[in-house]
Amino acid sequence: MLKLKRDERGAAVVFMVFLLPIIIVLVLFLVDLIVLIDARMRLVSSLDRAMYAGASSLSYSMNQISHLNWLFEKTYLEKRRDLDRASNEGIGWIERQIGDLKRRQSLLEDEMRNVAHMGYPLAHSVARRVVEKNLRGMGGLISLKYTPLYGIEDAPLFDMVDDVGLDGRYKNIDVVEAAEISGAVYDPSDYKVHRYELKKYLKKDPSYVAMVAALEAKILPPFLPRFFASAPLRITATSASQPFGGSIKDFANTPAENLDEAIRRGRDFLYHPALVPLSAVVEGRYEGR
């Protein structure tokens, strides 16, 4: 008995009809995955650049405070030298010299405080601009959110009054007796002993200065949402940076005739930007480094 031969012509076409949509979906999924990986890499890279730019801004602020602190101590040294050279000057002259020193130092102190208060806002503003510039025009980007996690924008870089002893007094105060200056132990008008407190320098090294930020982007992949109406995908990145290697106090003690010379001689005590691991910021913050 003869067996009928099966006609399999067209089976491949039927198979491809069922397989082709799956292949198309897989290809589109692969394209979307590449887009998301690229977006993630750009997000991380942009945030790292932003944090480095922010650390550069913080370093500039810290170095400004170092310069002002040097001027603060230079003002003290000059006035103390004038007082040491005085001979038989009256109490009135002494008080005018002390008053002049305090006025000049007060202006420098106010300027330091302004720099300290503007440090973090300026650094985060710089970082935001870098992020926006680097991610402008990125395909599929719906929204972008930059969030400071450490070094918040409404806080100063540090407390300007932190070099104090257990008794609440400045450690860097030089107490000058009027008798050391003029030979007069008391003012003949009120018979009071006169003692004057001169600030040697204002700011020691801060306990910790750093900045950490998170970046969140919502991305709409180019193909699959059109078919499946999926929601935008959320991509995040974090990065940390800090001014590195400087010392405000050591720079203030740099011997020099003027600020330009102090900058040349004390360049090893100036701050430089550095990216750091997030864990280093957390550990450093809680260890008070």
Describe this structure as you would to a colleague.
This protein has 289 residues and is of the alpha+beta class. It has one domain. Helices cover 53% and strands 16% of the residues. The strands form two sheets. Strands 1-4-5-6 form a four-stranded antiparallel sheet. Helix 1 packs antiparallel against helix 2 (91-135). The chain is rod-shaped and about 120 Å long.
What is the topology?
Layout: H1 11-85, H2 91-135, E1 141-150, E2 173-177, H3 178-182, E3 195-199, E4 211-219, H4 224-228, E5 233-244, H5 248-252, H6 259-265, E6 272-276, H7 278-287
Antiparallel strand pairs: 1-4, 2-3, 4-5, 5-6
Structure at a glance:
With 289 residues, the protein is of the alpha+beta class.
Task: Give structural attributes.
4-stranded antiparallel sheet; 53% helix; rod-shaped; 6 strands; alpha+beta; two-stranded antiparallel ribbon; 16% strand; 289 residues
